[in-house]
Amino acid sequence: MKNVFLLLSLLVLACKTSLAQFSDDHILNLQTEDLKVLNWGYYLGFNQYDFQFEYKNDIGRDVLVDKSLGFNVGLIGELRLNDYLDARFEPGLLYTSRTLGFPGFTTEADALREVRSTYIRFPLLLKVSTKRFGNWKPFIEGGVYTSMNLGSKEDSLDDNSSGEFRMKKNVYGYELGFGIDFYTEYFKFTPSIRGVFALTNELVPDNDPNSPWTGNINAMRTRGIFINFTFE
């Protein structure tokens, strides 16, 4: 939870700093920026990934998830549809780490599984903006994504009985977010916050259907939050 507050604080700080910069500025920067049919840029940011579990039986022994702060980086290709709509393709690389705590075990080696994931992501989004107010413009965005988890270990023959936690390699889902475009003298700077929701059941069950690790898990899906800083 502390990491979430840190992410939100960074976004608020970026917005307040940018608003302070433009509040008394009557000169419009980059006046033709939004008239381009194609636009390019890149983004840097932070993420915090979680898991949502669905259980076969409610036995009061939920898997605990210890989340950490990850990072993401990528490119942006934007197609202008009209004054308020843009289609965006944002391929990127994301790293995150989660530690799972399984109840009922007496040793740490059996109870804990560190899940390190490197995702190559391919989001396709629709950006819906308001009209421009001076040198800033709010927007909301949403769309779908597919990604490849390079650390999935899906093809491994070992499972949790050998200390190996396995996940599906290919994941798809949807994401929703909002942000503000700020027009500086030389480039457009955009802080944004986004929620990511996987639709794929990412769990690869253990070989034993009665496994104490995965036997009671019906599905496991990623939930995440991004804070990105975009430069276009």
Automatic annotation (TrEMBL):
Protein name: Porin family protein
InterPro entries listed in its UniProt record: Beta-barrel_OMP_2
Alphabetical list of Pfam families matching this protein: OMP_b-brl_2
N-terminal signal peptide: 1-20
This protein's UniProt keywords: Signal
Outer membrane protein beta-barrel domain boundaries: 36-202
Organism of origin: Flagellimonas iocasae
